[in-house]
Specification:
Number of strands of chain A: 10
Order of helices and strands of chain B: EHEEHEEEHEEH
Number of strands of chain B: 8
Largest interface: A-B, 43 and 44 residues
Oligomer: heterodimer
Order of helices and strands of chain A: EHHHEEHEEEHEHEEE
Structural class of chain A: alpha+beta
Helix content of chain B: 25-40%
Strand content of chain A: 15-25%
Helix content of chain A: 10-25%
Shape of chain B: globular
Chain lengths: 278, 151
Amino acid sequence: MSLTHLNARGEAHMVDVADKPESRREASASGLIRMRPATLALLAEGGLPKGDVLATARIAGIQAAKRTHELIPLCHALALSKVAVDFDLDEKHACVHVTATCRLNGRTGVEMEALTAVSVACLTLYDMCKAVDKEMEIGAIHLETKTGGKSGDYRREAPSAPATSVIEAAAAPIVTGEGAAGEVSVGTRCDIAAPCIRVKCLAELRERLGVGDVSVPFNDLPSADVAGLKAALKAQDPSFEGLDQGRVLCAVNQVMAGDATPLTDNDEVAFFPPVTGG
Amino acid sequence: MIRVQRETFDAGAEQRALLDDRSDVGAVVSFTGLVRDFNERPEVQALTLEHYPGMTEAALQAIVEEAETRWPLQGVTVIHRIGRLAPADPIVLVVVASAHRRAAFEACDFIMDYLKTRAPFWKKEHTASGDYWVSERDGDHQDARRWEFSS
């Protein structure tokens, strides 16, 4: 294997791609910026002094992808057909995951554009949030996938660098509970002897909080309702602050409920994100 | 009849079963939802459907009962699949039988709108650029709200 940006004398040069056939090229890159949980919460609720952080960072990433050739010396100027920049707020690990996908029909790959988009989106997130948090850290910027072109398709294998360890391997979602089709699940019994509430976190919320099933002693509830249960959960584990982030729905004994719904011993309370079936 | 199952289904067979030995049905409307290969991201390779056993069946039953109070229906079948599905696989089937077509069309539409906003199913999509949980769509809520002002 040789470095295509060096010529026979080892000097840097721009590769002539005029004779390469056009093909559909796509590349995805990702990275993340870690920040204090309080900063992330402000970001999520739009409470930062510079305004809409994610929209600004998205535009910055898209603009950066288009101007990659101005930044990276031997990159070609490309007419990208698509640039998408996405953010995933990760409360559990107090970071924002940034992904960028670039596409074109052309003669050169677009991985530099995707990597540049992620980098500049991360820098913009830093700029937008630095008034409240100067300790933010950008990291784990890497190519995820690349398709098209002579060198063939590439897909990054499982994370190897320690910096990416905060990104959990995407485990296959399990189907919660023990009920079979057509019968009503009674759920598991409390796993503690005292009166207690059985709590389930479902789907995306389970992965975000890192908790599926948990039992809460009934006497820990400051008030005998769902709001009291949330308070007891947060006292037990700060990651349950995530119950207040985004839209989280609640069911008591498998019927939709709210913060004021009263609870009694051995009730089953499920928290879950908005439904997306059908 | 309401079923939540991993296995696929045969829409034709389910419709025939619903109509079996009946001659009072004047119209039957069948809707099948399929897995698309693009959604929030391109190149959806598979999706995994999670649900909340027990509540799922109760929620679907409540939706069907609500439809039966709004339209004169003679039979309803709802089947929703769970687990891992590939593009082009059927996900959901709603078959509605009635004496007249308008009731069957509207009730089928209603059941799907309410299913998408009220039944505890969640989709995780597996794409070329990674896995992600599908987020709710405003359009689905707008569709469901149409039924609050009619009937």
